[in-house]
């Protein structure tokens, strides 16, 4: 089964209570948005962090992508708030 | 010359500027971002995505070099815990033309703010800590460079 390593940053990481985990995909066609919805359904900190996708951004294998992107064979999916560097 | 450094340590601005000046282009521009101590802020904690930061800042630097005739570019971005008055970020550009140096410097800091994977958490004297929210005008400034 296809799987991806999830990495979390900032308040997403704090709400979920871990900085990374391995998650099985329903299929390689599963999109980031679909996976985020599935994770939010776990409730608790996952719901707190992921229930509102508009507050989140994603990077697939270190490249910013939209939530309609299929995860495919990517190794790492990062979920985080909009960046605030500089 | 292209220098990119993602680090916890402070840096020597004089040395960074001197390296750009020594390229002989005739024009050097720079921007330094410093932690503001307003509203009782005691520290700013900068988290980043180590596997992506270097790659992404490299992409931003390449974009600047594609848009302007630069002979030198330096980007230093710190992470970790910083107190008011400490430097966070430095951008320096060198060119034969002042317009290219000034514009590319503004472009680089705008894009770093909204396209580099850093997150700031503000810590206050009463122990409270909150993640700094992104500002719509920062994203708008970054997008202005695409018009």
UniProtKB/TrEMBL annotation, chain A:
<dbReference type="Pfam" id="PF02597">
    <property type="entry name" value="ThiS"/>
</dbReference>
<protein>
    <submittedName>
        <fullName>Molybdopterin synthase sulfur carrier subunit</fullName>
    </submittedName>
</protein>
<dbReference type="InterPro" id="IPR012675">
    <property type="entry name" value="Beta-grasp_dom_sf"/>
</dbReference>
<dbReference type="InterPro" id="IPR016155">
    <property type="entry name" value="Mopterin_synth/thiamin_S_b"/>
</dbReference>
<dbReference type="InterPro" id="IPR003749">
    <property type="entry name" value="ThiS/MoaD-like"/>
</dbReference>
UniProtKB/TrEMBL annotation, chain B:
<comment type="pathway">
    <text>Cofactor biosynthesis; molybdopterin biosynthesis.</text>
</comment>
<keyword id="KW-0501">Molybdenum cofactor biosynthesis</keyword>
<comment type="similarity">
    <text>Belongs to the MoaE family.</text>
</comment>
<dbReference type="InterPro" id="IPR003448">
    <property type="entry name" value="Mopterin_biosynth_MoaE"/>
</dbReference>
<dbReference type="Pfam" id="PF02391">
    <property type="entry name" value="MoaE"/>
</dbReference>
<dbReference type="InterPro" id="IPR036563">
    <property type="entry name" value="MoaE_sf"/>
</dbReference>
<keyword id="KW-0808">Transferase</keyword>
<comment type="subunit">
    <text>Heterotetramer of 2 MoaD subunits and 2 MoaE subunits. Also stable as homodimer. The enzyme changes between these two forms during catalysis.</text>
</comment>
<dbReference type="GO" id="GO:0006777">
    <property type="term" value="P:Mo-molybdopterin cofactor biosynthetic process"/>
</dbReference>
<comment type="function">
    <text>Converts molybdopterin precursor Z into molybdopterin. This requires the incorporation of two sulfur atoms into precursor Z to generate a dithiolene group. The sulfur is provided by MoaD.</text>
</comment>
<protein>
    <recommendedName>
        <fullName>Molybdopterin synthase catalytic subunit</fullName>
        <ecNumber>2.8.1.12</ecNumber>
    </recommendedName>
</protein>
<dbReference type="GO" id="GO:0030366">
    <property type="term" value="F:molybdopterin synthase activity"/>
</dbReference>
């Amino acid at each position: 089964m296809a799987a991806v390593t999830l990495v979390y940053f900032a308040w997403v990481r704090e709400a979920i209570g871990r900085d990374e985990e391995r998650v099985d995909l329903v299929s390689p066609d599963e999109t980031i948005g679909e996976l985020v919805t599935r994770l939010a359904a776990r409730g608790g900190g996952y719901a707190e962090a992921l229930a509102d996708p508009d507050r989140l951004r994603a990077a697939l294998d270190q490249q910013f992508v939209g939530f309609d992107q299929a995860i495919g064979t990517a190794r790492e999916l990062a979920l985080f708030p909009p960046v605030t560097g500089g | 010359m292209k220098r990119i450094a993602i680090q916890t340590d402070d840096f020597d601005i004089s040395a960074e500027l001197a390296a750009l000046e020594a390229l002989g282009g005739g024009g050097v521009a720079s921007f330094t971002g410093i932690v503001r101590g307003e509203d009782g802020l005691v520290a700013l904690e900068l988290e980043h995505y180590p596997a992506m930061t270097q790659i992404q800042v490299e992409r931003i630097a390449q974009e600047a070099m594609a848009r302007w005739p630069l002979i030198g570019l330096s980007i230093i971005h710190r992470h970790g815990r910083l107190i008011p008055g400490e430097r966070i970020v430095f951008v320096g550009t060198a060119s034969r033309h002042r317009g290219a140096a000034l514009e590319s410097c503004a472009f680089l800091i705008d894009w770093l703010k909204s396209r580099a994977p850093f997150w700031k958490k503000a810590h206050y004297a009463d122990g409270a800590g909150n993640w700094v929210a992104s500002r719509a005008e920062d994203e708008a400034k970054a997008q202005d460079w695409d018009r």
